[in-house]
## 1
Amino acid sequence: MNKTNNILSTEDLTIGYKRNKGNHVVGKSISLALKKGEVVCLMGKNGIGKSTLLRSITGVQENLGGEVFLKEKSLRKFSLSQIAQTISLVLTDKIEPTNLTVFELVALGRHPYTNWLGTLSQKDEETIVFALSKTDLLSLKNTKVNELSDGQMQRVMICRALAQDTPIIILDEPTAHLDIQHKIETFQLLHSFAHELNKAILISTHEIQLSLQIADQLWLMDNQGITTGNVDELVKNGEINRIFDNPSIQFDHQTRLFKFINLKK
Ligand SMILES: Nc1ncnc2c1ncn2[C@@H]1O[C@H](COP(=O)(O)OP(=O)(O)OP(=O)(O)O)[C@@H](O)[C@H]1O
């Protein structure tokens, strides 16, 4: 694979978990590429391995084989601080109860750049205010994090990732707690990060209809592996059905909606 345009890529990657009696392989022979200025939506049924993949390509979890590259250099050759200056990761884990304000939590995104005391420079302050403004959180900046709703909290975590000022942002189910309006707004926001700020955005999600509207590329994960391509291509050739293993659920490429087919008729 030509890696020159890729900000992140994988080569023959095997992901999964080490166990005493043989490894639990979740995916193998995975070769993928992320580019700046693009939104990629990663989809697949529950338990197929999306979170495992995200943790594996960000160095949070050890790979069972193969290689991850940032530009043309192996991820193994990067220090933790260098990785943190390249990739922001937004996970679904609940954060520990904290007395921090929204501003202070977002400021933690500057950690890879600050000294050990966490002293903020003028550039750090400006980047935090930019992130708060872009995510429409300026009015909440002095609110205690433990007073936020789940939806507001999810926006704050996206804001922190933006404050981290990395070319890549990877998010695991960032709209899980949101109502439909906030789901749409979050997808629009992430789309603007890619298309206005030239970031590479990778989102693991179950929001199929929204993904079809905003994604530049889809990564469809099933038991056979990961199929990649642009949305129109995958819709047209029926590959989108890969995310279901139930033949009675099918994607209608004309209406771009899923329909339930009664196979007993
Ligand atoms: N810490 C772990 N140790 C061992 N196996 C794990 C661990 N976490 C997940 N798995 C297993 O790895 C497989 C993939 O899980 P993963 O959480 O990556 O799926 P997912 O696609 O993100 O699912 P969902 O859509 O439900 O969030 C599953 O079989 C799961 O049981």
## 2
Amino acid sequence: MSQSEQFASDNYSGVCPQAWKAMEAANRMDEPAYGEDSWTQKAADGLRTLFDTDCDVYFVFNGTAANSLALASIGQSFHSVICHELAHIETDECGGPEYASNGAKLLLGQGENGKLTPESIKHLVTKRTDIHYPKPKALSLTQATEVGTVYTPEELRVIRSVADHHKLNIHMDGARFANAVAALDVHPSEITWKAGVDVLCFSGTKNGLALGEAVVFFNRSLAEDFEWRCKQAGQLASKMRYISAPWCGLLKGDVWLENARHANACAQRLARGLEGLPGIQLRYPRQVNGVFVEMPEPLQAALRAKGWRFYNFIGGSARLMCSWATTNEQVDRFLSDVRALVS
Ligand SMILES: Cc1ncc(COP(=O)(O)O)c(C=O)c1O
Ligand SMILES: C[C@H](O)[C@H](N)C(=O)O
């Protein structure tokens, strides 16, 4: 089975054709370095148009850097950041946010289906207000969440009102932001600055790029000196155009949204095909491009023996993740193998 026959991660996919074509176009001539090139300007302007607001845009290599540096910009070392206990910044960034902020503490909240609840936020903000405890200053929401669910615009507005009351900045981990927009069928502004998000880390990597994340500051006062923070962290690409030009490929004709819609549709096909099969049940509602299922260990082992790859370490179940490159044939082949093994 080829390496593309997998549901391990959207990080396994290749580069989508439109991004590749834009990369080739950027490769035709020399361009200024360190973000001074025409492609970076075009990509940043394209994101300002997409979000319909005058936001500050920066490009970094990966999501851990984007999250870590963004969080370091919205709080100090003596502050704390509230996030869900399943948040990637807690579970899979190796202390990056704490390191980049020189010590800000992550306070872990709860909520069904991987979503922080206003009650959990209030509890964490008020449980200790004495000088000995790191003062809550920021909130991190993952949209779509690590377990493939989404915050609705209304849920975000309620969380914003809690954040306002407690003077918290809001960071959004948008590793699968495109998938959330596609699932909610809203304008991107509805689940970002109009819902009070201060900074968004918008992943290109999971949406068809080789690498490259956009850090979008809607609250521009928090972006002060961010470029120096990136430079010191080794996140200022000298040939920035090779990150920003593929972003132009995603933005042109809303390829970013089509890629997300496709990934979500493949996951929907997969979830529907698994429903009702003996011993298999969904662990979380399928809302974007991931399907989280409880499957007996022997079945998982048999699928892996057939070459299928998928993770078990997220959300306490098997995660089947689709991408822009997933095909219906691949989904149907997986389902056929599952049906044969459970029959
Ligand atoms: C929810 C989430 N946030 C952030 C990231 C960024 O991680 P990376 O540093 O691997 O780009 C990922 C990675 O896949 C992710 O799943
Ligand atoms: C979990 C892993 O770090 C990666 N963020 C993924 O979702 O595949």
